[in-house]
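Give me the fold.
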Amino acid sequence: EAAARLTSHKPLVVLKAGRTPSGTRAVASHTGALAGADRAFLAACHRSGAIPVDNLEQLVDAAIALAYRQPPRGAGMVILTNAGGPSAVGADALDRQGLHLTNLSSETQERLREVCPPGTMTGNPVDMLGGPLPEQYTQALEILLEAPEVDGVMVVYVPQAITPPHDVAVAVGHVGELTGKPVVCCISGGGGIRAAARALHAHSIPHYLTPARAALGLGALWRYRHVRLHPPTAPEPVKNVDPEQAVEVIQAARSAGQLVLDPQAGAEVAAAYGLSVPPSGLAASAEEAVALAGDMGYPVALKRVAPGVVHKTDVGGVALDLENADAVRAAFARVVAVGERGFVQRMAPVSVSNGLEVIVGAQRDAQFGPLVMFGLGGMYVEVLQDVAFRLAPLSAAEAREMVGETAAGRLLAGVRGQPPGDVDSVVEALCRVGQLMADLPQVVEVDVNPLIVAPAGKGAWAVDVRIVVTDKA
C-alpha cells in the first residue's frame, strides 16, 4: 500500500534478495508447483507499481534513467550508431524490455541522408558507419527526435580514432537535454570513456557501458509510463458468494481428517463462491455411482478418489462420457480400487472439443498473501508454464490483464477459424477465486483445472476443483 501511494507520483525500483530458494517444498497442486517466492514478489510489484530488478547493477541503471529522463509516449525506439554489431545487441535487448525498433518514415530517412555520412543505413538502426563527425550526430539526433514515429533514442558509439568519445557525448548532450523524449547513450571501449560519461551526465543523459544496460534504462522508463497510465484499481467485492457455506464444508472436511478436500467438497466450496460446477457426488460402490448418475443425468464422468493421488489421469483414474448404467458399473470396477470412493460428475455442457481448458489457481504466500494464477490448463500445465499471477483480491481489470499475458488468452481471442472464448466468464472466475482467498484464510491452495471455457457468451465450467486447507483454526 505504501509503495502504491508512492508510485502515483514517483518511480520506485525494488531489488529483493532471496527470490530463488535453493530447495522447493513438496506441493499438492499445480499452482503450488508453478508459484514461488519470485512470482509472489513480481505480483506485488505489479500491484504496487514498483519496478523490479535482479541485481545492484540493474538497480543503478534503472535509477539513473528514471532520475534523468521522462517516460516515452510509446514503445517505438530508434538506435543511432556507428557500429552494426552492438546495435544488433541493443535491438535484441530492447525487445526483451517490451520495446521495439520503430519504422522510420520515408521523410525521416530522406532528411537523415541529407546530413549523415555517405553510405549511412537510414533504416533502424541508423548506422552512420565508422567515424561520423560530432555535428553529424547532432543533426541526425535532432531529426530523429522531431520524427513523430520515434518515442525514444539509444545512441550507441564505438570510439574511433577520428572522433573522440567526449566530442560525441557533448553533441548528444546538447540535443538530448532539450527534448522531452528519452535519450540514452552507450559509449564503450577505448579511452576517454570517463570524460564522455561526465559530459553526458552533465546534460542529464544516462550513460551505459553496454547496449543491454541502455535498453534496461529505457525499459524502466517504459514500465513507469505504464504505471502512471494504469494505476492500480481497487477490487470491488464479488457479489453472490456464500462464505458461511464454504466454511461449513471446510470444517466438515477437516473433521473427517481432510486437509486436501475431496473433489465433492472442493466443488461445493467453488459453488459457494459462484463458480459454475456440474452436478456431482461421491459413491462408495458401483450401484451408488449408477444411482447418482441416474439422478443427475447422463453422460457422466467417473474419477478415482484416493489420498495422495494428485494427477488422476496418470494412474488411469478417470473415465469420461459414460452414457449408461452399464458403462458406469464397468468404469467403477476399472477405475476405483477396493475400499476407495468414486466421484461421479455430470459432463459439462461444453467439452474439450469445442471449448478451451484453462487453469484458475490460487496460493497463499507467507510474505505477500494470497495469489491468483491463470494459464493454459489440462495435464500439461506444469510443463507449459503458461501462467500469470496477481495478488488477491483482484479487480476485473487485473484479471483481464492476466488473461491477455498468456497464450491461453490469445487462444481465447479466437485463432484459425475458431470462435472466441468466453473471456468475461474467465475474468469472473478469477475474481471469484481471488475473493475466496481473501475471505477464507484457512484455504492454502486452490486448483480449478480444468476450467473449460465455452465460446463467447456461453460460460465456463469448473470440472475439477482441488482445495488445500491448513490444519490451524
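The chain has 18 helices and 18 strands.
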